[in-house]
């Protein structure tokens, strides 16, 4: 378990040349001389007229005050900050990047960024989705192959489909991807049919959609396989901070306030990486706000620098207002305030989970199978007697305006198989809406099974 920095020496053995990990587009790229960049960027001590910056005098937003939950201090903007938040920037917002480095040192035990000669770094993205897309777009060629869990985050297909990326789904259990299944696939791979896999795409904590949580032994086994077969691990850990405590009482101090000390968290692939093969994607979408579109990649600096170029090509830079808000929020909260908010989120989500469980049992007892999720946001529900949840959903639920996550959405487009699962989010919906939906689902399953017989 990791709750604060340890003595792990991140990338201590890493002397990697990553040129072979990049696709042909980035192998051809040559950086412009600094003098060229200077013509369209602002630098202290320089008088520049090359940039296409609008005048700050036309910016309409004159005041911003943000009230924070749980503390008395507000987020306010000075005049200079208001101008900054509405203007272009070139390069990273270094003050925020430095906070994120400290964040990774604290929560993943990385060695000090400055002492390790910048062997690792961070790159801010517009949420985890962009981070995943940036990594795929820079490291995969058209037709390449990656390994993922049998059921995985459907959003990755938005990037893989246009580039004809082959996604091979690997069997999972309650701890995630099964190493023996990986070994069987890789040891029998025929590269004359498809290119040998370059990368693992993994969701280690509260896996989406199954809810599986990797233990340390499972991570060790998969990490060793990545080393053996010279593969990169893309660690998409969107639910990392949604690892629920065993009891509600554990989130409180003796006087009833939310605890602010270190969180009890499973360690990450990033925290154990000594070979420079892990790329970690983080986001605050599930624990703060998805609308602010804020995430970041952590990994070997040689690769992170490439990702920074790609993010610039995609959207020039992140919203400067978002960057400034996140900087101020993390500066005010510090680790103690962040930990408090995570425990508040744990309690909120555990209550919602338990409320939904009661209604699942009330309406669907004997009709479904499920395990109580110990983190994340979803129930992964098996429909008894149903072979194809997609066809069942289209015929029985969608016409009644009842929508669930159908298992087909989480399956690789390269693979075709029937599945009888639904993903049901316990973080949304009122109790009345849940009762209506589960009542329809119950009646539909009974009708389906009756018609089948």
TrEMBL record:
Keyword Transferase part of the UniProt annotation: yes
One GO MF term: transaminase activity
A biological process term (GO) from this entry: alpha-amino acid metabolic process
Domain of life according to the entry: Eukaryota
This protein's record includes keyword NAD: no
UniProt keyword terms in alphabetical order: Aminotransferase, Pyridoxal phosphate, Transferase
InterPro entries for this protein: Aminotransferase_I/II_large, Class-I_PLP-dep_aminotransf, PyrdxlP-dep_Trfase, PyrdxlP-dep_Trfase_major
Domain Aminotransferase class I/classII large: 90-440
Cofactor: pyridoxal 5'-phosphate
Protein name as annotated: Kynurenine/alpha-aminoadipate aminotransferase
Taxonomic source organism: Tieghemostelium lacteum
């Amino acid at each position: 378990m990791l709750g604060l920095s340890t003595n792990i020496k991140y990338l201590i053995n890493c002397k990697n040349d990553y040129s072979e990990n990049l696709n042909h587009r980035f192998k051809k790229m040559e950086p412009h001389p600094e003098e060229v960049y200077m013509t369209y960027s602002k630098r202290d001590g320089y008088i520049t007229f090359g940039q296409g910056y609008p005048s700050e005098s036309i910016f309409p937003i004159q005041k911003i005050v943000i009230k924070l939950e749980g503390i008395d201090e507000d987020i306010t903007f000075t005049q200079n900050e208001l101008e900054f938040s509405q203007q272009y920037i070139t390069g990273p917002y270094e003050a925020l990047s430095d906070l994120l480095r400290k964040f990774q040192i604290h929560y993943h035990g990385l060695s000090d960024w400055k002492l390790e000669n910048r062997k690792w770094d961070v790159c801010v993205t517009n949420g985890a989705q962009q981070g995943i897309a940036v990594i795929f777009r820079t490291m995969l060629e058209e037709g390449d192959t990656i390994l993922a869990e049998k059921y995985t985050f459907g959003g990755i297909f938005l990037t893989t489909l246009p580039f004809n990326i082959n996604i091979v789904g690997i069997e999972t259990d309650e701890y995630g991807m099964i190493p023996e299944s990986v070994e069987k696939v890789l040891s029998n791979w025929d590269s004359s049919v498809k290119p040998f896999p370059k990368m693992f795409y993994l969701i280690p904590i509260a896996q989406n959609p199954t809810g599986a949580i990797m233990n340390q032994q499972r991570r060790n086994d998969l990490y060793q396989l990545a080393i053996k077969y010279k593969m990169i691990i893309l660690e998409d850990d969107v639910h990392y901070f949604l690892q629920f405590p065993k009891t509600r009482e554990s989130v409180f101090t003796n006087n009833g306030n939310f605890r602010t000390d270190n969180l009890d968290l499973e360690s990450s692939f990033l925290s154990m990486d000594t070979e420079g093969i892990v790329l970690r994607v983080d986001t605050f979408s599930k624990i703060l706000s998805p609308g602010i579109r804020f995430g970041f990649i952590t990994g070997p600096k040689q690769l992170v620098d490439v990702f920074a170029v790609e993010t610039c090509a995609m959207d020039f830079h992140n919203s400067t207002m978002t960057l400034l808000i996140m900087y101020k929020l993390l500066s005010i909260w510090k680790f103690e305030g962040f930990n408090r908010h995570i425990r508040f989120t744990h309690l909120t989500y555990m209550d919602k989970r338990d409320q939904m469980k009661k209604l699942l049992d009330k309406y669907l007892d004997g009709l479904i199978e499920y395990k109580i999720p110990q983190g994340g946001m979803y129930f992964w529900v098996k429909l008894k007697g149903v072979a194809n949840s997609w066809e069942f959903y289209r015929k029985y639920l969608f016409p009644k305006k009842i929508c669930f996550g159908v298992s087909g959405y989480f399956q690789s487009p390269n693979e075709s198989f029937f599945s009888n699962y639904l993903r049901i989010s316990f973080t949304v919906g009122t109790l009345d809406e849940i009762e209506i939906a589960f009542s329809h689902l119950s009646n539909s399953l009974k009708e389906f099974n009756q018609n089948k017989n």
